[in-house]
Every structure is written in C-alpha cells, then in structure tokens.
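Hi R.,

Here's the input for the iron/sulfur cluster complex you asked about:
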Amino acid sequence: MAKNNDYNRVSVLVVGAGPAGLACAIQLKTQKPEIDVCVIDKSAEPGNHNLSGAVLEKDALHRLLDSAVPGWWDSDAAKDVLRKKVNKDNVMFFLGRKLSFNIFFVIKLAKRLGLNFGQMIHKGDYIVSISKLTKWLGQIAKELGAEVLPGFAAADIILNGSADKATGVKLIDQGLDREGGKLPNFVEGEVINSRFVVLAEGCDGLLTEQFIEKAGLQRQSPQLYSVGVKEIIQVSSEQYQKFGDDRVVHAMGYPIWTPFLGPGMFGGGICYPVEDEHIAVGMIVGADWKYCNFNPQDALTNFKNHSFIRQYIDGGTVVEAGAKMIPEGGYLAVPRDAETGAIGRGNVLILGDSAGFVNMLKIKGLHNAIDSGMQAGQAIAETFENGEAAAVRYTELIDKSAVGKEMESAKNFRQTVAKFGPLQGMPLSVFGGLLPKFDTEKDFEAMAVAGYRLKPNQDFDKDTFTAVAATEHREEQPSHLTIIDSEVCKSRCTPIFDSPCITFCPAGVYETVHDEVEPANPSNCLHCKTCQRKCPFDNIRWTVPEGGGGPRYKRM
Ligand code: SF4
Ligand code: SF4
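And here is the predicted structure with iron/sulfur cluster in place:
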C-alpha cells in the first residue's frame, strides 16, 4: 500500500475482492496503468468468501478480459474456470416429494412472447465456481499492477463533515481479547487514505450500509434478501454421468411452495455439475418467510430427498458447504443519492451485490457485478482529476449499460411476489413495469407465529456443514455478533417465536446459555448476515471480525 511515497495513501481503494471489485481494478489498470489501485478483502485468500450458484453470462467477462488480457482464453486458468457451458437447461416444477415436471417450454414460450420470464434461460452460459473465478480475476488484477490484499478487514468508512466525500477507510483493530482488552500483540486498525473509495463488499456490506445511512442515500423500496445454502457433493461416476456435465437444474415448488396447502415462500432449488464426480445442490429462499421454526437447510434437506434430485446424489459425501444472502429487491432497492440519483456520492461508488445488481428474473447477478465494476473503473479513469464527479459519472454509465437496462426490465418483480405471494404474485409480475410500485415490509417484519409444515424429523447437521465450510476465526477476540437487548429475547421473542436465530443461523452460532440466547459460537460464523436481517425484532448486529477469519470456500 506504500504509494506516492506515503505509507497509508492510495489513489483508489476498493473494499472487497469479489468479481465487482476486481473487475473495477482490472478495468482501471487497463485504461490508466499509472493509477495506483489497492483492493482489500476480509477473507484469508481471494475467493474464500465468494459463494454463488453459479451460472455466468459471458458478455461482461469477455469484454473485461478482451481489453485487459489479449489471448486470455488460451491460459490454463481460463480453460479451468470456464470449461463448462450450459447445454441442457432444466426448469422444473416439483409437486410433493416425488413428482416433477420440466416446464422449460413455458420459459421458452415467455421468451417468444417477449414476457419477463423469458429471461430465465441459461443455455450457452458458463457453469463456474465463483471462488475459482474470483481467485483468477485477483491474479489478473495483480499482474496488471493492482495490489490485492486479503486478510484486511475494513471496519469504518471515513467521511468529511458533510458526508459528501470519503477520505478513506479504517481497518479493524487486531489483537483484542474477548472483553475488548488489548493483548501484547495489539495493533490499532490503520486508516488508509484514498482519493476514491469503491464499495464492492457483496450483499449487505458493512461499510456500504454505514455509508448509505451517513450520507442519507435512499432506496425507493427496502432491500429484500434471500438466503442461499449450498453443498458440493461427491457422487459416483455413474451418477455424475447420468446428470451430465453441461446441465443446470432450477426447481420451483416443493419444498418451499406448494399450491393452497403451503408453505408459501419465494425461491427454489438448484443443481449443477461442479467438476468430475461432484454435483452442487442448493436452496435459495426469500428471507421474507414467516415460519418461525424454519431454516433454509430444512428446505435443502427436503430438496435433496426429492426423488428427482436424490437419484443423482444418493450415497454421496458432502465435501464443501456454505451460506450467503442475496439482494433481491432489484432496481427499486438500489441506494441512490436523493439529489443527484447517483449510486454512491462524490468519490464513493457502490458496486455489484452491495448496490443490489441482482436480477431475480434470471436468478443471476454475477455478470452485472462484473459489468458494474467495469463502469466504475471507467468512471474513475474519466474523473480522476475531479473525483467528486465520479459517482454521478458512474451512474450515467450504469444507466446506459446492460446492467441498468436489465435491472430496469426486472423492476418490481420481487416486490410483486412479496406483496401477493407466489401464487398470485408470479403471474401478476408478468405485467412488470406496468404495475405500480408496491410497498413491501422488511424481511424481518414478516415473521409470524406459524410453523413450516414440511419440517424434517431430524435436526440439520450444522456441525458437519460448518466443518466443510472450513470456517475459523481467532477464538480470543471480541464477538463480532451483538444482541442489542437481551431482554427483548427473553420477554418477547422467546415466548412468541421460540428464538428463531437458534434455528435459522446455518452455522449454529446462537444458543441458549443459562436461559439467555447468545451468539455462543461466533467462530463458526459463515458471514452470511442472515441473523442481522431476519431476527424478528431487528435485535442483532453483525460487525467485521479480524481479517483472515470466516469460511474458506474453494469450489463454491
Ligand atoms: Fe429472537 Fe433476535 Fe433475540 Fe434471537 S436475537 S432470540 S431472534 S430477538
Ligand atoms: Fe450467518 Fe449470522 Fe449465523 Fe454468522 S451468525 S452464520 S452471519 S446467521
């Protein structure tokens, strides 16, 4: 980070070494190699905190690499990361535990008729591991001269008095004990001063949300989230061949939605090939679920036991697992400056999942993350001498780009389903932009005294799940999870809802200890941030732990 002969000063500081942040660094270094760019990330290694489906539309990635790395497609890394393409695209409807129907013809028909649902076609896309993709992009960014620094966790964004400009970022203090006392190796978190701050932290970014609040950015509609849980399963070669290495399955219906009887949640299951003899299965559930005893891992269990999925994975071994949230609110939930409409303000730009560039009609956001990174890199290159214009220029470029057009085309989709439920909301959403803007509640407000009808008999094995996520943190540090008011847990939540955080946290972090709910196992945390958005009393805050902690995804 020693740039311009000043130890803690850099021209462009990117927070988050995911696809969006790295695309920004690559684009900027391609256009203006003389600009110093530093990308920091809280994970131990690039890619460790990245989890996605992941089906990747190729255009944005190709555009990025065509200009940055001539002949990139011939590299071993490109051949490894991009070796699978979708040839068979299954969109299934599961009715109960056994019945399944391929309804891909409906999607094709919708495409022919120009309806929104026609966007859900994946043929020709890459099937990728986002962990590997990120690692590769990190290597390219480094080769172009950017500094990519894993293990650096950012705790605060530092703004000037009127919050229209950031001066830098403060890293987290290292070397505190559980009570917050200084250990002999204590190091105060440094401040990195920067002319531009790019927020590319992924979903529900800590600095991003701080910035949105301090700078007074506004969303037309609250951000809505979903929770994704995913496992990679080693299967027999017969099962793998039977599934095929060029096929993706997206499934709706059971176990998160069944007509009339319920449950009535938004989302679905996924099943993709990963690498030889490995198949990924996952479940994405809209976090506006109402069932207080529900855990997305219960739905994953049911999904894996559906006869259509079971034939491919039965007897297999889970070798990797993880969880994350996805921002689903779309166009209406993108945070903007009230005055200028900028996605950011002044010299602060918000990218990718941090901005909410996920298109739930496609169930994809990776291509938008990369594209938004490119637009940010371009905007900074153009406004380098006048940083205060960067966010406005970035937003102009986004609005003209494929990201802006695509996000607008899917406007109101998720809000319509949130408002009317899947049975009426899905068909209604066909009218897309013609519909008025529906007010939606925040996800945590949806919790009710209701049970998930399909609850499996056995508790989900969270210990194995976290073990294969390979998550770890230094034990002797202050907990990065805070319950704001334990009296709310005791007198309101536990009697009414039976402490849902204990159930829905995918890593078993929350437990009742001496009659009090506590984040008893913070070192198991997968950084999914579900607890912060789903506690029914908005009573949990997630802050960043020391750099280098958290999951260590390799093939997600
Ligand atoms: Fe309930 Fe939230 Fe307390 Fe957990 S932390 S018991 S979900 S109020
Ligand atoms: Fe996710 Fe919160 Fe559990 Fe960590 S503690 S794994 S952020 S739900």
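One thing worth noting: The CA atoms of residues 484 and 539 lie 5 Å apart.

Cheers,
M.
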